[in-house]
Amino acid sequence: MKKISKYYINRESSWLAFNDRVLQEAEDKNVPLIERLKFLGIYSSNLDEFFNVRVGTIRRMINVGIKAKTEIGGKPKEVLNEIQQIVLRQRDKFDKIFSELVQELEKENIFIINEKQLSAEQEKFVKSYFEQEVHPRLVPVMLNSHPSFPYLKNAVIYLAIHLSYKDNHSKPAYALIEVPANILPRFIVLPKIDDRKFIIMLDDVIRYGLKDIFSIFEFDSHQAYTIKLTRDAELEIDDDVTRSFFEKISDSVKQRQMGQPVRFVYDREMPSDLFNFILKRNHLQDFQNLIPGGRYHNARDFMNFPKIGSASLMNKPRSPLYHKDLVKSKSLFSAIKEKDILLHYPYQSFHHIIDLLREAAIDPKVTSIKMTLYRLAKDSNIINALRNACRNGKEVTAVIELQARFDEEANIRWTQKLEEENARIIDGVPGLKVHSKLCLITRIEEGEKLNYAVVGTGNFNESTARIYSDHALLTADPRITQEVSKVFKFLENNYKTFNYKHLLVSPFFMRKRFLKLIESEIENATAGKEAYIYAKMNSLVDQDIIKKLYKASQAGVKIKLVVRGICSLIPGIKGTSDNIEAVSILDKYLEHSRIFIFSHGGDERYYISSADWMIRNLDNRVEVAVPIFDKNIQKELKDFFLIQLKDNSKTRIFDEKQDNRYRKNESDPSFRAQDDIFRYLKGEIPSIS
Hints:
Blueprint (H helix, E strand, L loop, with lengths): L10 H17 L5 H31 L12 H32 L2 E4 L6 H15 L6 E2 L14 E8 L8 E6 L8 E7 L2 E6 H7 L1 H4 L7 E11 L13 H12 L4 E7 L4 H10 L8 E4 L38 H7 L2 E5 L5 H12 L3 E8 L7 H11 L3 E6 L7 H13 L3 E3 L6 E2 L2 E9 L2 E9 L11 E8 L2 H15 L11 E3 L3 H17 L5 E6 L5 H13 L2 E6 L16 E6 L4 E2 L2 E5 L6 E5 L5 H5 L1 E7 L3 H16 L4 E3 L7 E2 L10 H10 L7
Parallel strand pairs: 1-6, 8-9, 11-12, 12-13, 14-25, 17-22, 19-20, 20-21
Antiparallel strand pairs: 2-4, 3-4, 3-7, 5-6, 7-8, 10-17, 11-15, 15-16, 16-17, 18-25, 19-23, 21-26, 23-24, 24-25, 26-27
Helix pairs in contact: 1-2, 1-3, 2-3, 4-5, 10-11, 14-15, 17-18
């Protein structure tokens, strides 16, 4: 895909390169086998969201007649075509990897079989499972007699059924069955044969039962082919001033299922008559994003592949560490009052955050709790703790972001749960998403109010905290807590804005302050002083920031970047970015934290943040970057960053080619950052800063 210019990679291209790194993990024979299958699931899930959101945006540009080049890197139709070509190449790679993984599973005596490969005992099991569990949940629709094609839900898999006679050429009949993978498991473990284990997919259980489903007809050939339609997932929020934002979001979520098609995936073995029938009935004959695939779609379900076989086929479970300063026998407020504490999860336990809220809920000295909530766990202990705080008479304020993409329905439900306990709900800021990760707890101590704050890089979500690498600062430092209080006052009263001396808050001052910090490094480098920037984030897209980093590189500032996903900056351009090194780490945990370190003339500046260097974070969201003042924690953060820079196992190098080349040095010992960070926090390896 074309670059925006010779100095920038466009975000669509860079994102697809990121997802190719996920495929690399599925391909890596050093990754345990079932974990490799899960990476195929992650790849598929990522691609669904890419089409839901990014391709949906491009198609809307086409629909409204935008033809000129835009910030997406070219004319919308050209970009869409290039996306199609990349996705098709990756699809071939995906199919090859899946075929290899099936063979690897068979070497481990694990067999994924279809409905035609069942033993007598397994067939008996499948017949019973189909009759008892599957058949009652199926709603077959006969298509020939249906006046219009049934509505295809977003990202749901269907079986398109071809019914015919083997010995004559009578007109076939067509039917459609939704695969109830949202109700039943996609993978069903079958009875073993000796030491061999067997799995059948739900799709094939339905295929097994096709004859029974259509028994009232005389057809003797029943064939099923998987199809899936992905739709534009952007919410359309009306501007009716008589309706609450809550109501608008609720209706918009329902309307998402009606979004315009952005991708149609189908079994390439489907007969042409059935394929053309489906395209014609869905007005997709000239559709650009037709993706031929295999027998199975929605590989995202591989993220829930059964834990079957030996323990060596999965990552070895690792219990998170408890922070040495947060022992159970001591009040967490006492510990935080003594000194700032930085949590690194999943290496350290996220339950410290839940314990803090539980303690606050019953502590007579606590008067109020305020939190920003973006994405929460399915059965959220955070919500339970806040509800309990309400019952204990605390004033609870929750800023729940109803526009958190794909979590809107869950957040509506959590809003209702908290409202039942009389919590105060703030449903965001008009025109801005609240993406900051903040908690403010107020206690009365010796007759005075004292604030405690949690400022994090990731969601208050105990489920994702087991697989996302994030940081959270726990502090009673008034320089920070007073300004966190100002952020909540802004969220409560949008018309009132504040100045911040220590926090970097978007959309007000964050961009300006980051640019100023980079400019300071430029000035120091120009004056012959040591100057460097270390930055870790999910995405680097903002062109103003990138231009400033190029200027810093030209001035001699040493810049090291760890970017998990999209990176529009191109390192190593002679005379422009010679002093910039940019890498990506993809491993067991999702690298989600944001760390920013500036040399600042020898008086280093450290920040952790909820914000990436993207336009949306800097200009269109409420985000917070918090300074780290404690020297010991600064050392921890720098060690964390330097350990990541030493990685030569899971690091890929960013360059103009976007070929995801691994950083390898055969003469050096092996360093794997995520394992080494755990050992570092456990005290098994020394500081390296």
